[in-house]
Amino acid sequence: MEQPHQQASASGIVCSNVTFHYSTQEAEHTPPALQNISLDIKTGEMIAIIGHNGSGKSTLARLFAAILHPTSGSILVNGIPTDAQGEALWTLRQHVGLVFQNPDDQLVANTVIDDVAFGPENLGLPRAEIEERVQEALALLDLQPYAEMAINDLSVGQKQRVAIAGVLAMRPQYLILDEPTTMISGRTAQQLLQRVHRLSRARNITVMHITHSMSEIVDFDRVIVMHQGRVLADGTPTTIFAQADTLQDAGLDVPMVTKLGQRLRNKGWAQLPEVILSTTHLKESIHSLR
């Protein structure tokens, strides 16, 4: 699918014709990790980024967070290039918060409250503001009862919430979640994503959720499909799930309920929507036909 022409904006993340190689040797002998990526990420969007292993999802996240820099092309975060230096880079990294797949890679303190305070303390904020931010982040993730607990005594799901709270205490405008649900149960993952959705709506935070789970993306505003370092498709969940063949070519699949809806349409339920996104959507659609 061709990517639409993207216009730069002062607010948002604008990725223009970005190619990335992990090394100069790779550039000579293997395809790039990312190739000719152009995206426009707007403030407040809820975006799911999906793709098979090696498709470039995590590389893209690290480029947005200025951990990596494009080999060619450019990325602007609120007008600041991600290869900026000094104070501009410091400002950019306050705008973008990245949560890794394994929370143990991110947690640095002994207790929950100390870990959440770590980021604001490194910003050099006044003590009163640090305390305000920490309490706010703990409340957003329902972590007040665990504030004094040792990190090592938490479950993986609780650790993931602490990692997100630590990023939120920095008050980023863009929150990137790099497969945060991989190591936790389905129910815990669902609860975590519900909190993230509420947070995005309440604070107008842009969320980019990287995932392998097709069922997790149905409530997002937009889905970006990555394949072999390129953007294969970009649209609403309905638009993306309507392209089942394209997804299968990329090693992905549509949710089972979407397949069921299509089978029902083929069996004579032609008035059902072309794309069913969830079991609730299916039940409501069937009920409306009675």
Round the mean pLDDT to the nearest integer and report it: 89
Major β-sheet, in short? 6 strands, mixed
Query: Which stretches are poorly predicted, pLDDT < 50 over at least 5 residues?
Result: 1-9
CATH top level class name of the largest domain: Alpha Beta
Count all strands and give the number. 10
Tell me roughly what share of residues is in helical segments. 25-40%
Instruction: Choose one word for the global shape.
Output: globular
CATH homology-level superfamily of the largest domain: P-loop containing nucleotide triphosphate hydrolases
**Which sequence of SSEs, written as H and E, runs from N to C?**
EHEEHEEHEHHHEHEEEHHHH
- CATH topological fold name of the largest domain: Rossmann fold
Q: Please, how many helices? A: 11
Task: Calculate the terminal CA-CA distance, rounded to whole Å.
Answer: 38 Å
CATH-level-2 architecture of the largest domain:
3-Layer(aba) Sandwich
Q: Assess the beta-strand content as a share of residues.
A: 15-25%
Q: Calculate Rg over CA atoms.
A: 20 Å
Topology:
Blueprint: E1 13-20, H1 24-29, E2 34-41, E3 46-51, H2 57-64, E4 72-77, E5 80-81, H3 86-95, E6 96-99, H4 112-122, H5 127-140, H6 156-168, E7 174-178, H7 186-203, E8 206-211, E9 222-227, E10 230-235, H8 237-241, H9 244-249, H10 256-266, H11 279-288
Parallel strand pairs: 3-8, 3-9, 6-7, 7-8
Antiparallel strand pairs: 1-2, 1-4, 4-5, 9-10
Give a short summary of the structure.
This protein has helices at 24-29, 57-64, 86-95, 112-122, 127-140, 156-168, 186-203, 237-241, 244-249, 256-266, 279-288; strands at 13-20, 34-41, 46-51, 72-77, 80-81, 96-99, 174-178, 206-211, 222-227, 230-235. It has 290 residues and is α/β, with parallel strands linked by helices. It has two domains: 43-57 and 85-251, 3-Layer(aba) Sandwich (Rossmann fold); 255-290, no CATH class.
